[in-house]
Amino acid sequence: MAISIKVLGSSSSGNCGLLICSGHYYLIDAGFSGKKIKEKLVAYGLTLDDLEGIFLTHEHQDHCCGLKVLSKHQNIKFYANYRTAQAIEKRYQLKGQWSIFESNKPFNVHDLEVLGFRTSHDAIEPVGFLFKADHQCCCWATDIGCITPEMAKILIEADNLILEANHDLDLLWHHPSRPQYLKERIASDTGHLSNGAAFQFVKNSPHHLKSLCLAHISKDCNSIDIIKRLFQPLAMEQHFDLEIVDPILE
Predict the structure, then answer these.
(1) Residues 134, 140, 143, CA angle at the centre, nearest 5°?
(2) Tens of pLDDT, residues 85-99
């Protein structure tokens, strides 16, 4: 059974992934307008009618703004934990076709095993996702302020990992126009993962990665060149494919 994740976009402007599993199609978050999501699906020969569900990590706008349109499609289930579902319904005034899961407990969707695991972020009950099918394992882990020991045990299971590398700490702290409170929020353990923290995890963890995709990159406190200089030698040394999602292309 083939399983893969295509990142349709990932930055503070919007986050959305396409999970493909043996002819079944799902989104991970819906942080673009319904119109933009439709346009992005065209590249894969898909329409909204082909989608069977959306796995939702948390309630922030850059992960949910397309849900109003998608909630009108009865074929699309919304997979979320209870507190996130409540927060989304209240914030966006919508009624989705909810399928509620319990965080940190695996569940099945067709032949796909799914784990919504707790993450460290300033949302009501944020999660990342681990997807397993046969002997393949994909993981989506963005919007995380730090990698806890519990999260690390889950992330190292992934063959294919989408991981946040949000900011370069020097660029963040010396940014001329960002207020101090925002810098502190981003750099906190419930904010966003830095290049250095992501690098140290990949370098030092006993993983078996085939591919690493770095996502949710800051447009003004990071750069593709900085990330490449840091991660490309590690990718060559540890023999995994490296992809970097350019936030400028959103």
Answers:
(1) 165
(2) 999 999 999 988 999
Reduced 3-state DSSP string for the chain? CCEEEEEEEEECCEEEEEEEECCEEEEECCCCCHHHHHHHHHCCCCCHHHEEEEECCCCCHHHHCCHHHHCCCCCCEEEEEHHHHHHHHHHHCCCCEEEEECCCCCEEECCEEEEEEECCCCCCCCEEEEEEECCEEEEEECCCCCCCHHHHHHHCCCCEEEEECCECHHHHHCCCCCCHHHHHHHHCCCCCCEHHHHHHHHHHCCCCCCEEEEECCCCCCCCHHHHHHHHHHHHHHHCCEEEECCHHHC
pLDDT in tens, 101-140: 999 999 999 889 999 999 999 999 999 999 999 889 999 9
Asked whether the beta carbons of 115 and 106 are under 8 A apart, the reply is yes
Q: Domains, the chain, ranges and CATH?
A: 3-249 (3.60.15.10)
CA distance readout (Å), 80 to 51, 56, 190, 240 = 16, 5, 20, 31
Residue type, 151: M
